[in-house]
Amino acid sequence: MARPPVSEERLAADFGPHLNYAPPEGVPGREEPDDIVETHCCFCGMQCGIKLLVKENRVVGFEPWEEFPFNEGRLCPKGVQRYLQDNHPDRLTRPMEARPGEGFVPVGWEHALDRTVQEIRRIQQQYGKQAFGMLSGVSLTNEKSYLVGKFARVALQTPNLDYNGRLCMVSAGAGNKKAFGMDRACNPWSDMTHAEVIMICGANVSETFPTLTHWVWTGRDNGAKLIVVDPRLTPIARTADLHLAIRPGRDSALYSAILRELIVHDWLDHDFIAQHTSGFEAAAEAVQDYTLDWAETVTGIPASKIAQAAEWWGAAKTSFLCHARGIEHQTKGVENVSACINLVLATGRIGRPYCGYGTITGQGNGQGGREHGHKTDQLPGNRDIENPEDRRFVADIWGIPEPELPHSGYTAYEMLEAIHRGEIKGLLSICFNPVVSLPNNNMVREALDKLEFYACIDFFLSETAHYADIVFAGSLQEEEDGTVTTAEGRVVRIRAAVRPPGEARRDTAILLELARRLGAGDKFAYETSEDIFNELRRASRGSRADYFGITYEKVEKNMGIFWPCPDLDHPGTPRLWEDRQFRTPDKRAHFVPVKYHDPGEVTDDEFDVILTTGRVVSQYLSGTQTRRIGRLVDQYPEPLLELHPALALRKKIADRELVRVVTRRGSAIFPAQIVETIREDTVFIPYHWPGKKSANQLTSGHLDPVSKIPEFKISACRLEPTGQTAPPPSETQAWRAT
Amino acid sequence: MIAPQFNTEMEFFMDPQRCIGCHACEMACAECETNGQLPMITVDYVKRATSPQTVMQICMHCEDPACAKVCPADAIVKDEFGVVMSANTSRCVGCSNCVLACPFGVPKKVELSDLMMKCNMCYDRTSVGKRPMCATVCPSGALWYGTREKLERLRPNSTPINTFVFGKQEVKTKVHYMMPKGSTKLVVD
């Protein structure tokens, strides 16, 4: 039975999170490092360059890497403190086995590997290959992403592999493929420099991609007008020329009304539309009834402000539109993305200097990780697992007959549902903490309880690893060589600064050994990460994510190469579509008609307030790493319920009062933070915390029908004040809530 | 004091308008071994109930530093490049005169050691040609260190000022504030 072997309180006491602080004099060895390693931050999709200081196989500090072109030394607090995840008291240094009543006890590698392989075999013989699933994550390098995809299909032979990119940007990926036939931010961020208008749609840039703020300001310093669409006045929205405080879940109504304005006022690039696009008429017809007044009613944004945004967008000669999870984490995530792209195509501002568009990928390798095949419907090079030609191409490279290559399986949330139903009996996971990060996580816990066997590869004992039978001590980002692809499409080098501590092993070594024991060793004969990358290059050759011309040497020499890079002499492609040769079958960019519909859950008498979730600047995703770093925890120690004073008055809620937030999935208590910087009909809770403090106890499992992204951004909730004041933030233990 | 690589063309500019409240500067400052994990820069909300606006404060390195003038022990000195040093620990008597006198509220008395500490513009970095840590990591350009020529090219719509008026008192500083183009001083009433 996969359930915590002892109480979660005891697991937290033994395995943390504990808070790591640097000693006052600094980590010993920092002044005289043995090595200074140029690599990248392990956190968000910006993948800022950073130098790690190494002394005697320990990361002891950092220095800004001022030569790296994207961030030139700039970092956010997570980047500054990221080195403290090394030498951490919670670091797993040997494999462990869950023993009910005893806890996690250290075991040898032989035993851990043997038992895992036996269980995989038993479950697959008893219930079928598909009954063993695998979950992965896009903080992994390109090499590991590729390896996991191949491991699941060739060694485990299961269709049920998916990844936490499903919670990140899959709506953007699907929208980009529909429009352009390819999925990558179309421009480097430096194209903001002379954009006349920068429109940021559902992206809390300054808290979730702090170093991108520089590029937004670079444009503003040159006179760009900044439009920010967000239900909250975020730090970037505070500085906007126009803040459109949208009602959560109504985004496509806004962009459709703007498209209608562009058409009404003829702010269109007719030549571009005629020569390089298709589907404009259908897209125009879809929005013909979406007047400004209608949009005001739906979105809650004054019609005059929508008209202003349309006028600025319409009249601009250059522009940059970017979006993130705010519009993507919705049941109409893909439609929201299409509605945004329609604005870009209608004005023809793409494929030219300072004419940009792109999603801002959230996770460290959110871009590369979504291209190389640990997504259930995908093979390397963003190939389609159901396309016979793609299947043959990849099966040949992997040395297996095409019919043996599994087809598409369940997506991440669906996989947990399938476990809950008893269809999937065994699980291997790496780099994914669904107990914190998936919506409706009471269901997730119940599902994990039902597994017959669960093995987890991780470097800390995450809240999800509590449910494991076997825990493999894997590797941190700085313990293994590889590459990642940044949110702007730049492939960069991650360097092994240190070796894994104690008996911990590199993730790759663990997967290769499991593959060997499963009888597929001959298909996984790699000596180095570069060997894996070279196979990835071949597997992606000619694909819609073509890395063939990228080598480690080129990446290192040029501080990154932008894909597509089809051959060894090719310099890479920082800006897409300059040739107007879109990767769709007709080589045109496609408008997609978007009809508005409401979110999966709307407010009613019982649940009368909109709940939306997101992040804070000092924490990263499920907090597995950042809830263990002292200063990052101190900066924002506990999740707060942000609400407007007018709503607080109506609900008789005082500042710092503990408020029970109730949805159809569950309830949780948070201290109120009364601020005017949020809509009156909406409350916000950041989601980085586990247990009783987890916002994802409340969120819904409604999925986008195309991308299968969960609708984290909209739930209907009820607020119940408790009459009690929260203890001071300094007394909270939210980072280790059980 | 010998500082062969201190480049006098490099200057410090602050633009609180751009501050996103991320605290990267504070955390990076605290890393300096001379600070003992205490940041010499502060970042605070102005009034969180109404706005996410934050402001950061570092030592402004006054031309005629009040902190030095009121120090009874002559512990605070300004060097030839205009950097106002943190109190000399062998002289500082922990009287807090400087804490009370500074118009910007910069010096802090560290209770643990009973000594004053403040920003010395990362002297260990700037004196060897590096940029101060806070201005190197700042992701929004709210803290910026470089030549005036480059700054004017990058930010054509802003003007750096270094004259602050507090009531009847005018203070000139080495560190500049970015103001709308054409501004000459900041009046703080």
UniProtKB/TrEMBL annotation, chain A:
Residues 34-90 form the 4Fe-4S Mo/W bis-MGD-type domain. It comes from the Bacteria. GO terms for biological process: respiratory electron transport chain. Coiled coil: none annotated. Pfam families: Molybdop_Fe4S4 (PF04879), Molybdopterin (PF00384), Molydop_binding (PF01568). Residues 1-12, 369-386 have a biased composition (Basic and acidic residues). GO terms for cellular component: membrane. It comes from Chthoniobacter flavus Ellin428. Keywords: 4Fe-4S, Iron, Iron-sulfur, Metal-binding, Oxidoreductase. Residues 1-31, 363-386 are annotated as: Disordered. This is Nitrate reductase. Its EC number is 1.7.99.4. It is an enzyme of class 1 (oxidoreductase). PROSITE patterns: 4FE4S_MOW_BIS_MGD, MOLYBDOPTERIN_PROK_1.
Automatic annotation (TrEMBL), chain B:
Residues 10-29, 50-81, 83-112 form the 4Fe-4S ferredoxin-type domain. Pfam families: Fer4_11, Fer4_2. Keywords: 4Fe-4S, Iron, Iron-sulfur, Metal-binding. Gene3D superfamilies: 3.30.70.20. The keyword RNA-binding does not apply. The keyword Metal-binding applies. CDD domains: DMSOR_beta_like. GO terms for molecular function: 4 iron, 4 sulfur cluster binding; metal ion binding. InterPro entries: 4Fe4S_Fe-S-bd (IPR017896), 4Fe4S_Fe_S_CS (IPR017900), ET_IronSulfur_Cluster-Binding (IPR050954). This is 4Fe-4S ferredoxin iron-sulfur binding domain protein. It comes from Chthoniobacter flavus Ellin428. The lineage of its organism: Bacteria, Pseudomonadati, Verrucomicrobiota, Spartobacteria, Chthoniobacterales.
